[in-house]
Specification:
With about 80 residues, the protein is an all-beta fold. The chain has one domain. Strands 1-4-3-2-6-7 form a 6-stranded antiparallel beta barrel. Strand 3 and strand 4 form a beta hairpin. It is globular.
Length: about 80
């Protein structure tokens, strides 16, 4: 099991604990860096090296929390890896 955090600027009704989500992989710097987006494009992960890339393209939302200072939401997704 691998968990990854995604940042979401606005709260979306469909992104809640227990929800299944699909993700897309994106590339930066000629493919050396990868990032992930929950589709439809509602939340984005941090950047990772190719060695840290996910094998799975779907996961389950473990938690959603709101940062009191910025107001942004942070979604933790668990992947079966």
């Amino acid at each position: 099991m691998r968990e990854m955090e995604f940042k979401m600027e606005i709260e979306y009704e469909q992104i809640k604990e227990g929800a299944e989500v699909n993700i897309e992989e994106g590339y930066l710097q000629d493919g050396l860096v990868v990032y992930y987006t929950i589709v439809p494009a509602v939340a984005m992960s941090a950047n990772f090296t190719r060695q840290e890339a996910l094998r799975s393209r779907s996961g389950k939302v473990v938690s959603v929390r709101q940062d009191e200072d910025s107001g942004a939401f942070y979604v933790t997704v668990a992947f079966d890896e």
